[in-house]
Amino acid sequence: MSPEAIAPRISLFEGRSIKVFHEADFIGFRAAKGHRLTAPKSTGTMYLCEGAIDSVVISPLQAPEWVALQLHGDFKEGGLPDDIEFTPVAAEDAAAIAALLTARLGLPRLPKAIYPYSLTLTGTSQLEAGAYIRVVGCYRPSGHFEGPNFEGVKLLGDQALLKELTPGKRYAVTGYYRPDQMARIAAGAVLAAGWNGPAIHVRKIQPEPAGPRLSPLTRYEPPPSPFRRGPVWAWLHPAEARGHEQLEFSTRLDSETRIVAALDGEGGDRTGHWAARVGLLTLATLIPEPFYQPLLGLPAEPTPEPRDDFAAWVAWLVDRSPLPSEPAALLSALGRRMGQVLEELNLRQYSLGLGGVLALIQGRRVTLLRRALARAYLLRNGQLQVLLYEDTLERHPGYVANPELLAALGAAGSGPISMFMPKDLVHCAPPLEIEVQSGDRLIFALGSELLCALADPARERLLAASEPNVVAGSPPTRDMDLNGWGVVAIEFGLSPEDSA
Fold first, then answer.
1. pLDDT (0 to 100) of residue 403
2. Which helix (H) or strand (E) holds 439?
3. I want to staple 131 with a disulfide (CB 3.0 to 4.6 A). Which of 44, 177, 251, 490 is the partner?
4. What is the pLDDT of residues 189-243, one digit of tens each?
5. CB burial of residue 296 (10 Å; 0-12, 13-18, 19+)
6. Hey, what domains does the chain have and what are their CATH numbers?
7. Is the peptide bond before 108 cis (omega within 30 degrees of 0)?
8. Quick one: 418 exposed, middle or buried, by C-beta within 10 A (0-12, 13-18, 19+)?
9. 60: preceding bond cis by omega (within 30 degrees)
10. Residue predicted with more confidence, 436 or 222
11. Which residues on neighbouring strands pair with residue 28, listed in sequence order?
């Protein structure tokens, strides 16, 4: 039998600069006839294991019709670096290949964050074989080289990654889950000698930080409300005995572009103020601006406990790859990066979530991204219009048309069904683009208690006053005082420059 019969080559794409094909478990890349790739330096065909490709990105080159096609993944088994670049590639070829790989491989490929106890679950609760996971746990060798050594499972893979692990130390592990092999006995399988329990085939392993605690720590507190920075002003009222669960961020990206965030933190055990602070620190780290610099301090190894120094943990965890320039893509990237930091903290026994509204302003064009329990209004000529409602089941089109189902949901229907996450869920609303006029005002309302209070038309009309103070002449509800609330507004002046 010929090699071609065993692993036939299946063409996936062929363009004027590059062709792509599938062979066995690999994706092959080769320059098209008559075209020469200057990178990678090796000539001929490059094979990448399809299960090792994590993401694909297109980067512009000096000539607009040519681009660089960049693939990131774990290619160590092939003796290759983690980042592979094909240059130059025709722009239309690169776009087609990126779309092809994204759909075929489900890119970007992100590990599922799990808690250690999930590693040893059995039956219907057991993790799926081959699941790509990330977990933080303790390395504890059992005393025998064939026994488990990490939270009841065994770490397998490249010995260069595993040979210098310290017993008793905590590690963040990313890899593929291999279930307990003992279940195969019932099927008559012959088991290999050694450990046949659950295991993780490690792709990446990183020791948990152990930096010294800094004293005193700088903690961000917003100015007394109401406060104003340029065209942005805010009313932020802290939750009783906890601090601000709603925060505002605003800064210029350049002379023509401003970005504004209205953040609403949520957390188990009343830790929403931590989530809001982490979100603001993430934005301040990615988009440095003098007003927020005092919060960040010098880069330092984080403390073992994140809450002792959230700024250092954000700096350690955040994805610092270049941000896209297109407005909708930029806001989505910022939302995902805040979600990624929060997910990493949650791996370390926290329970934090973040919603709100991100806005990017370029002249009279505004792009909005909303997640969770936040609402966006447009005030124009004294008329208040809702642009984006909070993202809940009771607002979801599939439930609005079914009163019986909504009644059955009860209070659960008003809970958030989206947050800022490392990867947007299918049902998450895409960014909204609008045109604004001179004299317009955008208003973002934050906090479930405030949104409940705004169901009263009298309170909602307060947003249309000369200052959108939702408690002017109308005392806040007890729930608003107890759990905090926030209103962030953007004024648009006579010229685009006034609003930037």
1. 67
2. none
3. 177
4. 555 566 778 999 999 999 999 998 765 556 678 889 999 989 999 999 998 878 8
5. middle
6. 3-105 (2.30.29), 112-207 (2.40.50), 227-499 (3.60.40.10)
7. yes
8. buried
9. no
10. 436
11. 21, 47
